[in-house]
């Protein structure tokens, strides 16, 4: 199933090597391995989050152009998910969503999205200049909450918008409901949308 050894941990190994070197940090972040952190807070969460909080240098690598452990870790993730590539983000899910949208659509392009998207999707659409085409999610009348969109809804929307450049799906929803993402992906790919 996997082409790579999924038990390897290149980035974690590099961080542990950094810690074991007992270096004096003349780099950001300014807490210097937790020295400047409130004792009560540090006692609560421990020291490890601070001693591995490092910036760009040769041993640990760089997100901008990773030739070492970060690149190896991203390749392992891509292998695990069966994708061509994987990119780590330090900007959380919202930043990654916006980057994804900006990489795929441009000013005036149509992007198909569920109506119950997170504000990061809306922000990404605004930043890109794309035109949203909203799909109505299934509504759970008993609980009064919106679920995901069905594969049928996606196909209907694609037929109505054959010029769409992208489809973005929330899966699972904020309420934890998963849709048939495989069927949706196959449908989207059949329209030559990556």
UniProtKB/TrEMBL annotation:
Names of required cofactors: pyridoxal 5'-phosphate
GO molecular function: transaminase activity
Organism: Clostridium perfringens
Keyword set includes Transferase: yes
Domain Orn/Lys/Arg decarboxylases family 1 pyridoxal-P attachment site: 9-193
Keywords (A to Z) from UniProt: Aminotransferase, Pyridoxal phosphate, Transferase
Annotated protein name in UniProt: Aminotransferase class I/II-fold pyridoxal phosphate-dependent enzyme
Top-level taxonomic group: Bacteria
Pfam families for this protein: OKR_DC_1
